[in-house]
Amino acid sequence: MRVFIGLGSNLGDRAYYLKEAILALAGPDTKITASSRIYETEPWGGIDQPLFWNQVIEVDTSLEPLDLLHVCQEIELRLGRERKVHWGPRTIDIDLLIYDNRVNESEELKLPHPYLEERAFVLTPLREIAPELILPSGRSINEVVGEGKVHPLS
Ligand SMILES: Nc1ncnc2c1ncn2[C@@H]1O[C@H](COP(=O)(O)OP(=O)(O)OP(=O)(O)O)[C@@H](O)[C@H]1O
Ligand SMILES: Nc1nc2c(c(=O)[nH]1)N=C(CO)CN2
Q1: In this structure, what are the phi and psi dihedrals at residue 24, rounded to the nearest 5 degrees?
Q2: Which residue did the predictor score with more confidence, 154 or 70?
Q3: What is the arithmetic mean of pLDDT over 63-68?
Q4: Distance between CA atoms of 82 and 40, rounded to whole angstroms?
Q5: Which residue, of 95, 122, 132, 134, is most buried by count of CB atoms within 10 Å of its CB?
Q6: 14, 95, 119, 127: which is the annotated catalytic residue?
Q7: Domains (range + CATH), the chain
Q8: So what's the pLDDT on residue 27?
């Protein structure tokens, strides 16, 4: 299945956490098929906190959505993620953005990710690796990405 995953870090060695999370996601059931550059982004959501580094990857996985979510959560825990403040600072956050064309509305797993189309820190790196993508809302990614809002590190 074609899946897009968003990663974010704004505590500690952000490059290390992003790299380790991506390495940990790759395995016999999940291949990384594309990876965006890293973007440095202003915190979204109204909490005063350090700048984030964000990245989006595409994977090809045979795992079901909940199993993939649990893999992501184990990696978050291993990399020192503590759940303190909603939308607050974290060593690593791993979100399932789009899982093929699946829709899921449980608290544990919402697919597609509910804030997908409101977050430039997701949309801009997503467009980098999937410029032809039609979003779950039916709009093309090019229509919804605001120009010049977030920038890659290099
Ligand atoms: N698509 C999804 N990807 C990751 N976690 C999800 C998803 N949908 C629901 N969740 C649930 O959301 C919870 C994550 O809460 P968390 O504290 O990480 O939210 P957040 O990262 O602060 O906010 P946001 O989910 O808006 O990025 C987890 O318990 C997880 O089960
Ligand atoms: N720029 C940016 N802002 C955020 C981020 C993030 O990854 N990047 N994650 C959040 C919690 O989900 C809240 N705000």
Answers
A1: -70, -30
A2: 70
A3: 98
A4: 22
A5: 122
A6: 95
A7: 2-152 (3.30.70.560)
A8: 94
Q: How far is CA 141 from CA 6, 35, 124, 134, in A?
A: 15, 17, 9, 6
Helices (H), ranges, the chain: 14-25, 65-78, 120-129, 141-144
Q: Give me ligand 1 centre to Cα 47, in Å.
A: 17
Query: Residue with the nearest Cα to atom 23 of ligand 1?
Result: 87
Query: If you ran DSSP here, which 8-state letter would residue 123 be given?
Result: H
Q: Determine contact, residues 71/28, Cβ cutoff 8 Å.
A: no
Tokens matching residue 104: 């899921």
Q: Looking at the DSSP assignment, which residues form a beta bridge with residue 63?
A: none
pLDDT-derived band at 148, boundaries 50, 70, 90: low
CA distance 76 to 71: 9
Give, for ligand 1, the residue of 11, 108, 119, 126 to mutate: max count of ligand atoms closer than 8 Å to Cβ: 108
Residue range 82-129, pLDDT digits in tens: 777 777 788 999 999 999 999 999 999 999 999 999 999 999 999 999
Which residue type occupies 144? V
In tens, the pLDDT along 12-52 reads 999 999 999 999 999 999 999 999 999 999 999 988 999 99
